[in-house]
Amino acid sequence: MAWAGEADSERVRVFGELLAECHRDLFGFIYSMVQHHSDAEDVYQQVALVLWRKFDDFELGTNFAAWATKVAHLTARDFIRSRRRNAVAFSDEVLEAIASTYNPGKSWRSDDTSDALSTCLGKLPAKDRKLVEQCYSPGRDYGRIAQQHGRSVGAIYQAISRVRKSLYYCVKRTLAQEAY
Known about the structure:
Belongs to the sigma-70 factor family. ECF subfamily. The protein is an all-alpha fold.
């Protein structure tokens, strides 16, 4: 929409209202991709800046949440790619699966997701559950974890990637069953 002739304060107000309406869902979507609260906050801020810079391109009356989600998906993907060398991260395939199942019109229920994840973690074999706990604990050291398991760091990355994919599909199935 062209904002020429309209007060900048009206533009700010409209943008703020649209962003506020989808804030919770958008943040939840970003968090589901980056898996760390502080990273999700950083990415959310980047997304908000991109949305503001490109707000003149947004057509009022269309789906702001869907537009914001697409920007968030691309921004989170770039964020993850930039950090992939230093940490375990979802593959592009898993990120695409998360993005494709996200519905910006549907309310984000983090409690349901957390409950499903807890259930799925409980179903993991003990060795996989221990690996998840080690890889997601504060101050984790993948070299030390690999040494404890008698494996290479690359093997640990592959193992945790396999477990995360398994958890992702388990949570997805669990939430789908609860929807009926």
